[in-house]
Amino acid sequence: MRKHYFLFLFALVSTFGFAQLRTVTFQVDMGSTTINMTGVHVAGDFQDTAGATGNWKPDETTLAQVGATTVYSVTVSIPDGTYQYKMLNGDNWPDEETIPSESQVGGGNGNRFITIYKDTTLAAVEFSGNAPAGKDLMRLVTDMSQKVTFGTVTVAGDFQMAAGFPGNWDANATEMFNADPNRPMVYERLLYVVADTFAYKLIEGGNWESVPSACESGGNRPMIVNGDIVEENCFAMCGPCPAAPLPQYTMTLMVDMQNHLACNMMDSLDVAGSLNGWAGGDLLTDMGNGIWGTTMMVDSGEVQFKFRSHLGGNVSWEGVPNRVAVHSSADTVQACFNVDGLGGYCNPIPAKADLTFRVDMATWGGSIDTAGVYLIGDFTAWQTNAIQMTALPGGIYETTVTDFCPGSMYFKFVNGTPDASNSANEENAGLDSTCAVDNGVGGMNRFFERQNANATTFNLIFDSCAGMNISIDEEEKTDIVKMYPNPMTNSAWIELTEGNFDVTVLDLSGRTIKNMSNVSGKVEITRDNLTSGLYIVTVTNDKGAASSAKLIVE
């Protein structure tokens, strides 16, 4: 018995003796407070593990002034975990700070909180304040109670560099933690930023949430920070979580793949979206006549998704904005692959044609990356098979895709080596709805739909909706000489240069509304079924050179 007892005791000693400790620095800014003669202290439920005689000892953990600043700090070694604490201007409980509600852990005890999982230096928050001097508190809270199981919860956005992280939109950098034992499904993170407008998304187990259309902007959650703010949402929902889990219904997804199959651009197909955490993997099966489908059990409410074609191990996402369906009973959703919207079948594609892409990097004005300029799109599986373009005089880059098969395409240019994990070098900010569509992940994709088998040349400016002045070969030059009146009410006229042209009118989703082939001289665009709004008029000559202009219908 003595031998067994010894082994058990050894095990206990080993377990606690070798528990990993983290170096944690507590800080507080005392700039607005006269320092008590007994000094500045911190007390909390971390003290026992840090070597004090117990927890919540107001006189045992003393902070020292940092140089000549108003900041006081102390460094301790404590194990991983979530802790509560308070600062004291003195060494007894009447001396503790009054913590604003925005910074308090839940449960009504009025304490600050911190989760330790690595060596940490806490921000020097003002005594009895919410944030360091000159900054505001941004407290992000998410309720995971609608998830049956879930992995690590993080948040990413364009706030991360402002909050002290190396880069923005890093899905792994800003982990969220449960701090309130009374709300075990609620995860949160306290951040400190200068007042600004930000965008963010929540991530669970590496899967980005689909922000419902009722509370999204550009596919993300918008946030205006102008003072201390606490924002709580249910994961992948707007506002608080419902009291009970959402009911589930069957959803049948059907998509017309006839054009993709005709172009030999797929060997399998799956769907990714809020219905599976955007992880994909739910395969569709061939139902005949070019239609592929699957049936899934899906939570009721708004569902966002996209289809993904696979070929030789490469995955190509649709370039369309996230598809959105409101799901409240067993239903069927049908779409044409890579065409925005729900319902209907694909239009037949024209015969193959050569497409030439030219992009003006000089007018853009930025520095051209030494790795060159690339073309990516759904037809390259985006970054996977990116096409490096050839440099021409005057900062122009060009490439020709021969025997292009699909009828519609989404594409963009990249200044430097394409990287699926970092889209910072892709054109984006200068594109808007006049020439591109929302790609569902906070960016924009250019769009074009072929109407015939004519060779076509695109003359574009990098990160701009403007077309470049076509000067590489003047005999190919085409411009809309005049288009009037613009805005139009009932009709508009286009006066074309000498020769024959194809004229196409597209809406902002890329749908062809009108198409006139082999026209010349003065051409009328009648209103007919055009609703009020903005349209793109594209003119293509018989040599394939194209030019576009905006048309406003009142």
Give the topology.
Elements lengths: L1 H16 L3 E9 L10 E5 L17 E4 L5 E9 L1 E9 L22 E5 L3 E2 L3 E2 L9 E8 L9 E5 L28 E8 L2 E9 L2 E2 L12 E5 L3 E6 L13 E9 L1 H5 L5 E6 L8 E2 L1 E2 L4 E9 L1 E11 L2 E4 L5 E5 L3 E6 L16 E8 L12 E5 L9 E2 L1 E3 L3 E9 L3 E8 L20 E3 L5 E6 L6 E6 L18 E5 L6 E6 L4 E6 L5 E8 L2 E5 L6 E9 L4 E8 L1
Parallel strand pairs: 1-7, 1-8, 9-15, 16-24, 25-33
Antiparallel strand pairs: 1-4, 2-3, 2-5, 3-4, 5-6, 9-11, 10-12, 12-13, 12-14, 16-20, 17-18, 17-21, 19-20, 21-22, 21-23, 25-29, 26-27, 26-30, 28-29, 30-32, 31-32, 34-35, 35-38, 36-37, 36-39, 39-40
Outline of this structure?
The protein is mainly beta.
Describe what you observe in this structure.
It is a single chain. This protein is mainly beta and 554 residues long. It has five domains: 9-126, Immunoglobulins (Immunoglobulin-like, Sandwich), CATH 2.60.40.10; 136-234, Immunoglobulins (Immunoglobulin-like, Sandwich), CATH 2.60.40.10; 248-336, Sandwich (Immunoglobulin-like), CATH 2.60.40.10; 353-461, Immunoglobulins (Immunoglobulin-like); 474-553, Immunoglobulin-like. The protein contains two helices and 40 strands. The strands form nine sheets. Strands 1, 2, 3, 4, 5, 6, 7 and 8 form an eight-stranded mixed sheet that branches. Strands 17, 18, 21, 22 and 23 form a five-stranded antiparallel sheet that branches. A hairpin with a 2-residue loop joins strand 21 and strand 22 (314-317). It is elongated. The termini are far apart.
